[in-house]
Amino acid sequence: MKFLGIWPEERKFDRASSYRVLIPVSLMFLFMALPQTINLYFIWGDFNLIVDNLSVANLTVIIALTKITIFWFNGRSIQNLLALMANDRKEADTEEEIKKMMKIASISRTISIGSTVITNAVVVLWAMSRFLLMRQSGRRALFLLSSFPYESLTTPNFELTSVGQIVSAFCTATTYTVVDTFVAMLILHVCGQFSYLRQKISELGINDDVDFRKKLAKIVKKHDTLNKFADTIENKFNGMLLMQMLGCTIELCVLCFQALLSITEGSQELFVFQMCFLTLYISYILLQIFLYCYIGEKLASESSKLANAAYECKWYNMSAKEAKCLVLIIRRARSPLCITAGRFCSFNLQLFTKILKTSMGYLSVLYTMKSKNVE
């Protein structure tokens, strides 16, 4: 993330690191987003080329630019969340709690590394399939369907443009991945802290605890901190998540349609490379959508379980006045925390199935339109 210039920190005009983000943004915009969008004007009417333009990188780079912009502007807020995470680590007072936090960190790291490897593999397969296609046809062609204000197929313009597109593709893939995995890490941390909080609540009322009020005050304060933590994620990223949901729905549709075209009309010589690329690409999009839906479901589940923990603790060993204090936790936990797509819908496993159904519905429409055009 430091390489991309989006590591969470306070942005200042006199700090060089605040401007590092302009390098990947410029590459993605000048070599991918702008040329591909302009190219849509020239290929309008050719159904196959439009699908190819949208499916390979155009939608992906637009989503990546949205993510990197939102993440950069919210650097200070995200830095505060990291500070809270570091503070939680320092306050861990039992070996069991430390192990849980390390396990969550290990899971987050595995997700991050795995996602990065998959996205880079997608770019490599894409570049290889384009190179083999050029070699088979014997004609030069840009790696992406793009329109530039210069002759892009002559030397050295072609070589420089191709390198620029490949480098920008790796920047896009990395940006697309690191932001998603970072948000997932934040939410998984919150879920782990709710699990720890449930354990603390279950210990209330044991052995006629004389420090009940002190412990309850600490629990309530921690609960409030976690609620604010989750609300910050929701407030800062709900617009980005809306873009992610809509973009992934369209991407799934056009990528599956591209796969159908490859099966029915594609080159037999490059069929294996094209299908490997599209299969891995589609699988990655599905994994990213599922990741958000899973962590959204887990956040809602973990936050609402606090009410059950308060009800199941040894409240019958407390005085009536002390037991009534637990009502505050129960009432607050009745409203589960969630992450939303622009506040329109919450991310959960039900949304995942809806996205799949919607994408397949759009795919059916595209295939029908294609069949009518052929007729």
UniProtKB/TrEMBL annotation:
Q: Which segments cross the bilayer?
A: 21-44, 56-75, 110-133, 166-191, 241-264, 270-295
- How does the protein associate with the membrane? Multi-pass membrane protein
Tell me the InterPro entries matching this sequence: 7tm6_olfct_rcpt
Protein family (similarity comment)? Belongs to the insect chemoreceptor superfamily. Heteromeric odorant receptor channel (TC 1.A.69) family.
Q: Does the keyword DNA repair apply?
A: no
What does the entry give for GO biological process? signal transduction
Annotated compartments = Cell membrane
Its predominant location is membrane
What this protein is called in its record is Odorant receptor
Q: Which GO terms describe its cellular component?
A: plasma membrane
- Can the keyword Acetylation be found in this entry's annotation? no
The entry's keywords: Cell membrane, Membrane, Olfaction, Receptor, Sensory transduction, Transducer, Transmembrane, Transmembrane helix
Q: Which GO terms describe its molecular function?
A: odorant binding; olfactory receptor activity
